[in-house]
Amino acid sequence: MALLSQEKKEAEQSDYKAPDTCAGCHDEIVGAFGKIRHAGVKNSCDSCHTGARKHSESVDPADVQNPVKLNGLAADKSCLSCHQNQATHAGRIRGGHARSAVTCVTCHSIHTTAKKPDNCGQCHAGTVAEFQRPYKHGLATGAVKCADCHNVHGRTLGNSFAATSANEPGCNKCHGDKRGPFVFEHAPVRQEGCSGCHEPHGSANPRMLNRAEVHLQCLECHTNTTNNASVSGTTPPAFHNLRDPRIKNCTTCHVKIHGSHVNRALLR
Amino acid sequence: MRHLQAISIGFLLPLLLAGQEAAKPEEKKAAEAAAPAAGEKKKAKEPEVAPPPTAEEPKTGGSVDLGYRWNSDVTGSYDTYRSIVNLGEGPRVLGFHYTLMDAPSKVWDRLDLSAAGWGGDPAAWFRLDASKISTYRLRLDHRDTAYFNAMPSFANPLLDRGVFLNQRAFDTRRKYTDLSLVMRPGKNFTPYFGYTRDSGDGRGVTTFVTDGNEYPVANLLDDRTHNVRGGVEWTIGKGHLTLEQGGIVFDDNQSVSNTTRNPGNRRTPFLGRQLFLGDLLQTYQVDGHSIYSKALAGWQPTSWLDMTGSFLYSQPKSDILYNQVNKGLFTDLDTLVFADQQSLRWAAAARQPHSTGTVTAEIRPHQRIRIMESVFTDRFHNSSTLDRLVWNQSQQQIDVMVDASRWLTLRGGHRYTWGDGSSRGGLFSTNGIFDAGKLRRNTWTAGGTVRVRPRLTLFGDVEMARSTAILFRTSLGDFDKYRLRAKYDVTANLNVQITFASLRNENPPQFGLFSLKQRQASAAIQWLPRGGKHIKLLGEYARNSMRSVIDYTVPQLLTRERSEYADNGHTVSAFLDVRLPGAATVALGGSSFQSSGSRPTSFHQPQVRLTAPVNKHMHVIAEYRWFSFSQPFYRVELFRTHQFLAGIRLIQ
Asked: Are residues A78 and A155 in the same domain?
């Protein structure tokens, strides 16, 4: 208690006042900081940079905490001391970023509103390359953003997609006509999700399918090669001659492949 | 469309000019405030005379890029060009960004406006972000996206006969608008409201299917969804609660029509008679709605424990009215009776309750140890008895992370996923009316992060899964995943990154043969000498390979055949920005994708862009791009085109 009161006394006597004192050396950072919502935080610099008061006197970098240089646990703790109580945090522990020790400051620019260039691509370089394929979502044109489909803070759904509206996959955000519910559901759409058939980042297939040809995609389930009772998808297209190109293109007839309101075979 | 162009340009220009004029007194004040600050910068240790932190910040600023695009004649398939690139000719708002700070009205502390693609590009968007600290934050996001697809190679049953009509083509636009308003952001009690509208309309080609034949016909598409939501974020001490109630209303009104004699895809007589379609009117009227409730909670009872939970519940409902009247010559395969007219009118309904819940905890028993535990469940079913669909999935996961030292973090965990699902089985299903599936999967994870000082960081993760039951035969059963990433900051301005990821799945024999091997390796470099003042170089190379082997049965012969799918892709992207004398910049680069395997594809899009300042408020822009696409198996879809663009950038 005595120590605490001494610290308080020293604080009252000190000339230190954030962010004005900090601006003396870090004017560019503090200048940009004034534009964002963090500027409204009392003692804004000290909130993250523990030891800022001592650093202002010693000018020794070792005296002040820099979250960027901390390990995952400590860096997160620094941000979550304020941001723990946020809705975005609710699914974080289930998210890959939390498990891979990707901290808040990896993606967020704390001092400015300017986003880090190519934020997601800095780690997901292979995914960025997928968007260079001929058929892709319009990431480069700004038509979509990574966060439109992915909940980067964490997930409450059972896969890596963000939830939109109610507990629906993020794809439904734009593809509302595929939402349903349909009277006749195509089971994998609900149970495997869109990525069961589609490669959403980019593909050489005009419908961004996981396979080059439509029938190969469908045959993955509709083959009847297993007698295992616990495996679904035993539906054989019994009367279909798979060597006939007219029959081979499944979605020519099964037009309502995502689900139909009027036909069990998804024909209309 | 020309009206839209005129409106968008007409809207943006006055705003920019008005901003320039309005900013002048503010700039003067800022300059006055900044003047003493510059002199005091050296006296960093005298806080009483330190400059106000935002004194040098501009109050307003922004730029707009306006241009005109010309395309050369497309060599090859114009439909393919539209399906992939779809950039047309004419005037465009290529980009727009504007920031307004501390407006005299004090309605906002900051207002950001941005837009691009207006004037006819396939992806046009507009965003507004207005906020007043601790009072409100308003965000508006509007997107207008064109979807065009007419590729003969996709699901075209007549391609072998040389008929290049795509029977699944469409030419549609989707419009998406999202508005959200958060009141008192950052305070303990924060109400928020939101409204989203998503709509699509356009035309296309679809197939009308009858027994013995199918007919490509015109299709009109028209759907829209409205989502209204509201809730509160409530912080109570070390706890947090978010409650949201929302509603969705959607309608989907499609219509299919045909007025001319249509022979369909069967060109040979059926039982001696030529089937055809005359008049057709097929309409869908789908009306749906859903009320949903969402709750999110967080609690930090002690400094070493964080707990969160979430629950979502929705019950979407659809009511359907279907009308079909078709005239021509048709047959019924069950009775082999011919008819010249059919008429159907159906009403149907769909219900599908859906609930999701999670509980998570992060325990920190020691300052270097973090234990993360989560339990998740997702459950839904439809209300049908005959076409019953049920899917319940749950997952429990525990992860332990240890910061062994400042440079080493180790992690490991276990995940158990289980689920039960059932859906209506096929005609020859051996499992009865319903196919029942189960999922039982154990997954072990391990990994680590090594921060090799001063600039090298290595990441590695391994995931191994073994399943005793899977839902679909193509579900991943027994798989191993590896991921390695190295990031090396050679200097403050040179950064190199290498990533390798691998997935290998071999399902046990009882699930049926399904072998999948995927590999992805990429290398990226970022070079910004002197902070990118004169030269910026971004480069990336990625190699992807995939091989899938699966068996299937040919129904007529009951023989087993093997489907093998392989894809090997190489992607190169590079951009070099060089600042020329006179502050002009030239940007060279582009990307190239080349793949071999089941569907070999080449797609190249190099570009060069020159930006030169006329004065401090105006730059001129010139750009050249080349697009080339080819697929050896589908030469009919090849295209090449040149594209030129000239424009100006107005800066304030």
From this structure: yes
Same domain, A25 and A106: no
Is A191 in CB contact (< 8 Å) with chain B? yes
Among A80, A232, A250, select the one facing B437 at the smallest CB separation.
Answer: A232
* A253 shares a domain with A184: yes
The alpha-carbon gap from B476 to the nearest alpha carbon of chain A, in Å, equals: 11
Tell me, yes or no, whether A138 and A163 share the same domain: yes
Chain A residues 120-149 with CB within 8 Å of chain B? 122-123, 125-126, 128-130, 132-135, 138, 141-143
Element (H, E) at B440: strand B434-452
Q: Is A10 within a domain?
A: no
**Domains in chain A, number:** 3
Last residue within a domain, chosen from A122, A145, A169: A169
Range of the domain at A123: 69-169
Would you say residue A5 lies in a domain?
no
> B309 CA to chain A: closest CA distance, Å?
6
Cis peptide bond N-terminal to A169, omega within 30: no
- Give Cβ neighbours of residue B45 (< 8 Å, ≥ 6 apart): A24, A56, A59
Whether residue B513 lies within 8 A of chain A, CB to CB, comes out as yes
* Ranges in chain B, pLDDT < 70: 1-59, 102-105, 426-432, 555-556
Q: Which among A234, A257, A260, A266 is the top mutation candidate for probing chain B, defined by the most B β-carbons within 10 Å of its own β-carbon?
A: A234
Looking at residue A106, its amino acid is T
* Terminal Cα distance for chain A, rounded: 77
Contact list, A216 vs chain B (CB under 8 Å): 563, 565, 598
Structural domain contains residue A9 = no
Chain A contact for B46 (CB, 8 A cutoff)? yes
Domain final position from A141, A169, A197: A169
Q: What is the pLDDT of residue B37?
A: 37
Tens-digit pLDDT profile for residues A169-223: 788 888 888 888 899 988 888 888 888 899 989 988 888 988 878 888 888 777 7
CA distance A117 to chain B (A): 11
